[in-house]
Amino acid sequence: MGLSPVVIAVDGGGTKTDVVALRPDGELVGRVRGGGSNPQVIGLANSVALLDDLVHHAAGEAPVTAAGLYLSGLDLPRELSAMNAAIVGRPWATDAVIDNDLFALLRTGTAEPNAVAVICGTGINAVGVRADGAKVRFPALGHISGDWGGGSGLGSEVLWHVARANDGRGPQTALTEVVLSRLKVASVDALIEQLHFGERDYEELNTLAPEVFALGDHDEIAAALVERQAAEIVAMAVSCLRRLDLLGVPVPVVLGGGILAAGYHQLMTGVIAGLAAQAPSAHPVVVRSLPVVGAALLTLSRVTTSTQALAVALDALSEHQ
Description:
The chain has 321 residues and is α/β, with parallel strands linked by helices.
């Protein structure tokens, strides 16, 4: 007798990837976490190789009847097409749905047909859906596509302000000492030089984001950065609602990603106030569960109509947060 089939659900971001294997009845039979799988960051071939390894660890020898892969870095149609082509021939990819990780976050927070999700973690992005099937999304390519913030963006902004404080072009900020301490560097000049010559990875700047929120109530520069981050999150949500003609409709705005899930008081106060002012019919839903929960529910619903199976999966995944 062969092994019972499983479905595979994947939530992959810039720093980590979660993969779960479930029976069609919702039983959780495998779970594994690996490094970031964003193809924009590590390359398409490396992303697929990582996914292949994680899927095999989660599923074991069980046949995979359906897979749902929800990854950051899949924002444009050609990126989705490239990933679909790259997984052809993998034994777990015969019935695979691939999309941006925002859809996993969205389903983790709500099952409503009209909804918006904003993620603010390493980067920032948003998506909106409407009951008639309409969707809106963003290129999410950083500065060139109008994005601002997330861990990487905040880290760069911190260094920009610290550099200007260091040479007198800008006001002094408590962020200077935080940067030197966190990155264990003797001076701002030394840090800039090390980054310039490739002796440090720019990704180290991502670790500075929590310090911004910690100083938000005490430092003018940090407070301004927190205020702008809140405004950017609201702007993305309102843009989705406007483009879907849902501004006057009661709609959940799902908020997730490491920065939003952390619940920083000043940030969340700004986001909630901004939504209340610009989209008063919307209601924020902060997601602290792992988005692989939503990936699992989306994938499982393709192979079963059983609400019991979805409930079993939800309970199992909630126990293993």
